[in-house]
Amino acid sequence: MDTPANPPSLSLLGRSKFESEMQVRPDDIDMNRHVHNARYFDYVLAARYDQMARCYGMPMERFLEAGFGWVVKTAHVQYKRPLGLGDWMIVRTWIEEIVRDGVTVHFQILRKATGKLCADGYFDYTMIRLETGRGETIPEWIREKYAI
Known about the structure:
21% of the residues lie in helices and 37% in strands. The protein is α+β, with helices and mostly antiparallel strands.
């Protein structure tokens, strides 16, 4: 039985990969005429927001109603090739690991026209209780949604 002290093993995670399409906007471009490095974080966060509702059936509003939020503990990105103005991209994410109070979400950003990898990495998110701002054990009903 899974309890906060004994979270589900990684083998129980489905590690389903979900995708969101986005297009590079003019305000994403830096002085080097490609997407500014910080925008890649924005793309992943926007994709997660979309995928939480559409793919997991768990929109951010449900977390807020339950008094929970997510904060980024660690963010890692490796840039492979630049995206430019007007490029369409696929942002693919999946939950690699669930721990007592957080999840590790891996991502890939691919140029839609070629399928080539532009960036990849991961985010470690910690669940917090909004009223205190402190880490919170992920409830079982949320673990079940995320284990697909």
